[in-house]
UniProtKB/TrEMBL annotation:
Residues 339-584 form the COPA/B second beta-propeller domain. SMART domains: WD40. This is Coatomer subunit alpha. It comes from Sphagnum jensenii. Keywords: Cytoplasm, ER-Golgi transport, Golgi apparatus, Membrane, Protein transport, Repeat, Transport, WD repeat. CDD domains: Coatomer_WDAD_alpha (cd22948), WD40 (cd00200).
Amino acid sequence: MLTRFETKSNRVKGLSFHPKRPWILGSLHSGVIQLWDYRMGTLIDRFDEHEGPVRGVHFHKSQPLFVSGGDDYKIKVWNYKLRRCLFTLLGHLDYIRTVQFHHESPWIVSASDDQTIRIWNWQSRTCISVLTGHNHYVMCASFHLKEDLVVSASLDQTVRVWDIGALRKKGVAPAEDLMRLTQMNTDLFGGGDAVVKYVLEGHDRGVNWASFHPTLPLIVSGADDRQVKLWRMNDTKAWEVDTLRGHVNNVSCVIFHARQDIIVSNSEDKSIRVWDMSKRTGVQTFRREHDRFWILAAHPEMNVLAAGHDSGMIVFKLERERPAFAVQGGTLYYIKERYLRTYDFSAQKDNPLISIRRPGATAMNQAPRSLSYNAAENAVLLCSDIDGGSYELYAIPKDTTGKGESTPDSKRGLGAAAVFVARNRFAVLDRNHNQVLIKDMKNDVTKKCNLPVSTSDIFYAGTGNLLCRSEDKVVLFDVQQRSTLGELTAPFVKYVVWSSDMENVALLSKHAIIIANKKLVLKCTVHETIRVKSGAWDESGVFIYTTVNHIKYCLPNGDSGIVRTLDVPIYITRVSKNTLFCLDRDGKNRVIQIDPTEYSFKLALLQRKYDQVLQMIQNMKLCGQSIIAYLQQKGFPEVALHFVKDEHTRFNLAIECGNTAVAVASAKEIDDKDCWHRLGVEALRQGNYEIVEYAYQKTKNFERLSFLYLITGNIEKLSKMLKIAEMRSDVMGRFHNALYLGDVQERIRIFEESGHLPLAYATAATHGLTDVAERLRELLEDVLPTIPPPEKSFLLMPPKPIVQESNWPLLTVSKGFFEGAFGESGAVDLEEEVAEGAWGEDLDLAVAENEGEDDGTVVVEREDDEEEGWEMEDLELPAELAVADVVPASSGYFAVPPPGIPTSQIWVQTSSLAGEHAAAGAFDTAMRLLNRQLGIKNFEPLKSIFLELHLASHTSLPTMVSLPVLPLALERGWSEIASPNIRGLPALVYKLSSLEEKLKVAYKTTTEGKFTEALRLFINILHIIPVVVVDSRKEVDEVKELLGIAKDYALALRIELKRKDPALKDDPVRQAELAAYFTHCTLQPTHLKLSLQSAMSICFKLKNFGTAATFARRLLELSLSPQVATRARQVLQVGEKNPKDELQLNYDPRNPFVVCGSTFTPIYRGSQDISCPYCRARFVPETMGSMCSVCDLAVVGSNGSGLLCSATQVR
C-alpha cells in the first residue's frame, strides 16, 4: 500500500472521490462532512447541518453537487461552490445508510434502516419510487454504471438486484388524479416502476455491502459472516461464483477495483484485504493497530482508493504507477506490462525488444522499480521488490527482431538495488551487511565494499562511482578506491538525474530538488508543497521537472517557475528545446510542446548573455508581471522599463533604478501630487537640485522649496520665496524666509503687522536698530520686554554663502548594454514645460490684488508690467535629461550606488512566523498571519509585545557627531564564520525557556493564593505564545503543551475569582457550582488538592453531603497530609451515612464535561459546543462570534489553520 494522504478525525462512515478534481468527501460519525484536497493535504471546507452521524455521501459526476444522508432521516443536496445545502429530501423513517447520484439521470438512490430503498428526482425534489422487499435494515444501495439496475444489501442476509427500466420509460406526466393515486400506492406498497430481478441468498448473516463490477456482469458482497462472495448474473438468473475467506470479523465494505482485476474489502478486524479476482485468492493484507474499517471508495478514473476507519481516513494506491525507465543517448528503454521496450526520440518510434518473465509472487507492487542499461554489453538490470528486493540481468540478443518475441534467460539475485558501474560490472546493495557487491556479467561476485554510511539505496554516479543514500544525506563513493569523494545533506532522495555531460546532478526527494555539481557541492535547493515526480536536464543546463500538476523549471541559481500545468502526472524522459518527451502512468510515450522562452531569458540574463536577452526583448515574446518582478529582483529595473507601457509602473521602476529622466516623463503624464513628491525625494537623494526644484514647484510645496534654496545658497530665489509668502498672506512662511535670509527689518515688519510689538521691539533692540527700537518703545509705553545683557549673548545670523551649490557630483559609470541598445526612451526635455509656467531665474514677484482669498491660486506679475502669470526662464537642467537622437552604447552617465535591501524586509520575505514579522517591524503582516493562523482579532494586548520584539531585535551604532546613528538589525545564531551575504533570522526577546520560568512563577503565585496576580501571569503567557519561535518539532510540542496549561489555569482562576465575586455573596448555590467546576480543570496535583478541599468544605457547610463525599473520595486518591486525610475520611463517612444534597446543583460528577469559558456552566459530553481557534477553550454555541473570555485575543467559533511557531512546521 502506498499511502498518499491521511487524516485524523472522528469515525469516517462515508467516502466519495470527485470525478475530476483531487478532492475527497468524508462523512463523519460526529455529523460533519469534510471536503479534503488529498493532493495538497488540506481541508477545503466542512459542512455540518446534519444532526447525528452522516453515513452516506456522494459527488455528482458533472454538477457542483454532492448528496449526503444521515441518522436524522434527512437526505441533503449541497452545492460545494455556494458552500451551502440547497434542499432536503424527507421521506425515510429511519437512519439512512447510503446515498448515490445516478451517472446520467437526475436521480438519487438511498438505502435506509426503514427497510426501503428510495429513488428521488433531485431536480423536481420528489420521491419517484420506493423499493420494498427487504425485511431488515438495508445497508447499501447503488446504481449500475451502464444498465438500469440497482443492487442492495440488507441485514436480512440477501442481496437484491432491482430492474428500474420502467422509470426511464416514464416520459409523460400522468393526470392529476392518477398521479395522486399512484403516489398513495407508492407510499403504501412500493412503486411499480422498480421490480426485483434477482434475490441472491448465500450469506449466513446480515450483508453489509454489495456492489456491481463497472463493466462485467459481476456482483461482490460482504457480510457479518466474515465472507466475501462473488456473484455472476445474466439476463435470466444470478448465481454464486465463489467465496473469499480470510477476514476474522464483520466485512464492512467490498468493491471492485476500477482498473485492475482485483477485489478490495475491509472489515471490523482492522484490515484491508486485496483479492485476485481470477484466482480467487488473497493477494495482500494491510492492517491498522487500533482502528476498525467501515467504508471503501475507488476513484472512477485513477488508481486511487480510500478507506474510512475509527480515527479518520486514508487515501492510498495499491501499486506504484511510475514505469521503470532509463535513457541512453537518443533512446529510451522502459518497461511496459511484461515487455522491455525502446523509444527512439528522433524518429518517435516505439518498439518492443524482449519479453521479461512475469513475477512468480502473487503480491502487489512486484513490477520492476528501476532499470539500468549498459550500452557496452547491451544489457539491462531490472530491480523489483520481489522477495524483499531482487534484481534480474538480461542480455539483449543482437538479432532482436523488434517484435518482442524473444524471452532470453535472466540471471537473478537478491539485493535492495543494482546498477551498472563499469563496462562489464554492476553493483548490488546488500542492506543486511551494509555493503556493495561488485559482480561481473556472469553474476559472480568480484569484490565486496563496505559502505561509509547506512545505505538504503544506490544510484549510478559515473564509471566506478556510486551515490549512496541514507535517511538524511547522500554520499559519493568511489568503488575502486573504497573512499568517500563527497557528501551532501539532503532529505530522503528518491531519484537521481545526471546532466548529459555528468557535470551536474539533481537529487529528487518527495518535496524538494537539490542541484549539485559532480563532486556533490550544493548549488541550490528548490522546495515544493506537492510531490515532485520526475525531471530531466535541458540542453542549456536548465533542470525541467514535474510535480503532480505542473511542469516547472529550475535555473542553476535556484530560481524556479512554471512552464505549464498538467491534467495528469507524467514522467519526463527527455527535454529538447521546446519539445518534452515523457511517459504517462499507462506507460505510453507522449510528446508535449512547451514554451522555453521564459527560462531561456532568465538563463541568458543570469549568464550575462545580453545579446540574447536583447534579441528576446526586441522580439517581444515576453510580457507579464512575473518577468517585470524578476528583472526588478535581479537588479535590472532599466530592462524592465522596456516591457512596461503603464505609466505608474514605469514611474515606480524609474524611481527604483534612479532613472530620473524617465521618472520625470512619467510624472508629467500622471501629474499626481504623490508622484511629484516621490520624484523630489529620489532626486534629492541623488543631489539633483534642478529636478527637486521642479518637483516642488509642481506640487507648490513652498516650505520645502524655501529650505532647498537655503541649503543650496540660492539667496536670490530665497528672496523671491519671501515675496511669494507675502502674496499668499502666509505669515509663518514670510517669517521663515526672512529668518533664512537674515533680513532683520523684514522680521520686525512682520511682527508689527501681526500685532506682536514686544517681539518687534526685542528684535530691533537686539540687532542694534535704535531708531526703530525707540519708535516701538513709544508705542509700547511701559510694557517693555527684558533684553539680555549683550556680553552674555550673541546674534544668530545665517552665514553668507561663499559658493552657490549646484547639483552634487555623482558617481560616473559607463552606459550599460541595455541603455545603449534601448536609448534614453522616456527621457524628457523640461525646456517646454519650464517655459510655459514654471519658475524663472530673474522673475520678480509682486502681489496681485485680492489674491489668494478664494481658491488659494497664486498670480504673479513682473514689476516692469509684463504680462500676468508665471513666466519661466530656462532651468539649468543637466544634460542627461535631454532626449538624445542617438545614444551610443559606450557613452557615460551619472548614477548613485543602489542601496541594499533592508534586513527587516529580508526577514519578512523569508519567514512565515508572526513573531519574526513583528521583530522586523511588519506589524500589519504579523497581525494578518495571526488572524489567519489563530483567528486573533483583538491585537490591543499584543501591542506592547510587538514593540518589545521590534526594539529588542534592533540597535544602533554611533558615528561622528554631525551624522546620524547607523541602525543595526540583530540576528540570532550569528557567528564569525557566517557568510555576510546570507542574512540570519531576527534575535527574539521571548524564548521558550523564559516562558517556562514565567510558568514556574505563576505556579508559585497560585499556590500562595494570589489568584489575581496568577491570572495576570497566565494570560501574559497566553499573549506571548503566538509570537514565540522555536527550532525543533519537540519544542513545538512543548509550546503547545504550555498553551494548554496556560489556558486551563486561566479558565480555572477566572472561575475561582468569579466565585469570590461580592455579587455572589448571597448565592450559595452558584458559589458551590463554581467551586465544583474548579475541581474539574486540569491542574497540578498541589492545586487540585487545594481546590478539592475548598469544594468539599463549601458543599459540607451547605449540607450537600453526597457531593461533598464525592470530593472527599477524589481527595483520598491523592497523596495527603495526615490531617487533611483524616478530615476527608470524616466527610466521606458523613456522606455515606446521609448521601443527600440539601441544595440542587447544576453538577453531575458522573457525566464527563468541560466548562464554558464565558458562562462558567458545564458542557456535558454529547452536547454541542464551539471553541476558540487559538487557546481551544470550549464555549456554548450561543457565544459564537464573541471575543474569547479566556485568552482575550481570538473570536469564538472562527477558523484558524493552527499555531505556527517553528520553521520545521512549514513544509
